[in-house]
């Protein structure tokens, strides 16, 4: 699962320490998945034993054999152990519906859904600050697709607001892989729409017999590339930049596209996405340096948490401060 390091202008834990939180997220995710899967497998075993005992009783046999008595003992103790062990999941994600998963695929989908909510928390709050999140992002299908479909080592900046000398500039999608950074812009219109590209300010969109003009995505993506180049140059970084215009549900006709631009429509999106998914490389130092430089150039709007103001003079405040300074 890719990591959401910046969302809009919300405060992010990653901007506080980009070298610490990516590896911490991967570690917590792996620990939680193993714990949740273990609990689910134990619960499935308990259901099987329960069904076998019911069948034995219904047939008049009952747990009279040694095997039956062992099953009865095992079943009874699993009933007692389940709530305490299950609390591990509740502490991390607030989850108590694991038992509802019928298959391992159901469990994995549920886990990713809960992990998405956890990511949103990390992308909008720290131990001291919080930002007010637009609820639309919790239902953003594209955001979920990118986070849930890409590897842990990918870092995503979703519609970040960059603070430049002149004025704040909102970009679209910045995706940092271990070896390069992608500037992405998506053309998400009606299904089967055809976009006719050119170097003009506007492109033509056709859907059936209807035709209209849309602002050229080259303007957005060129602005993003210029911002990234300026940030990397100031930080003295040499990190490859790639650009792509993507339409997942339509077609792009742009035969004269610049060689530096990837044009990815519905015919090419799945192979391109699968190629990214197949990138097994771990987090790289150059990648984290690039992410740090970009995060330091973003705008952040946040407020101090009320509970932090109340406890600023307490031992808890100083304990957390000491941990963050280590």
TrEMBL record:
Protein name as annotated: NERD domain-containing protein
Organism from which the protein derives: Bacillus thermotolerans (Quasibacillus thermotolerans)
């Amino acid at each position: 699962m890719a990591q959401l390091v910046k969302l809009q202008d919300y405060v992010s834990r990653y901007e506080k320490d980009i070298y610490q939180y990516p590896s911490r997220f991967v570690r917590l995710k792996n620990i939680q998945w193993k714990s949740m899967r273990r609990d689910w497998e134990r619960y499935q075993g308990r259901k099987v034993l329960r069904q076998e005992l019911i069948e034995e009783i219904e047939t008049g046999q009952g747990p009279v054999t040694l095997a039956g008595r062992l099953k009865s003992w095992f079943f009874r103790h699993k009933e007692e152990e389940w709530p305490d062990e299950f609390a591990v999941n509740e502490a991390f994600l607030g989850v108590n519906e694991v038992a509802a998963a019928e298959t391992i695929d159901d469990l994995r989908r549920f886990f990713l859904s809960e992990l998405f909510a956890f990511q949103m928390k990390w992308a909008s709050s720290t131990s001291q600050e919080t930002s007010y999140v637009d609820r639309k992002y919790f239902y953003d299908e594209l955001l979920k697709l990118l986070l849930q479909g890409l590897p842990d080592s990918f870092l995503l900046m979703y519609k970040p607001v960059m603070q430049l000398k002149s004025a704040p500039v909102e970009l679209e999608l910045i995706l940092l892989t271990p070896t390069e950074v992608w500037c992405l812009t998506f053309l998400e219109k009606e299904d089967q729409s055809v976009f006719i590209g050119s170097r003009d300010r506007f492109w033509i969109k056709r859907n059936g017999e209807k035709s209209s003009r849309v602002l050229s995505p080259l303007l957005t993506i060129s602005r993003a590339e210029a911002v990234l180049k300026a940030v990397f140059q100031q930080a003295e970084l040499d990190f490859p930049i790639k650009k792509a215009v993507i339409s997942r549900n339509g077609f792009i006709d742009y035969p004269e596209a610049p060689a530096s631009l990837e044009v990815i429509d519905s015919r090419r999106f799945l192979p391109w996405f699968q190629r990214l998914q197949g990138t097994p490389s771990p987090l790289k130092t150059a990648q984290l340096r690039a992410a740090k430089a970009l995060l330091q150039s973003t705008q952040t709007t946040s407020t101090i948490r009320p509970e932090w103001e109340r406890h600023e003079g307490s031992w808890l405040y100083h304990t957390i401060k000491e941990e963050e300074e280590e």
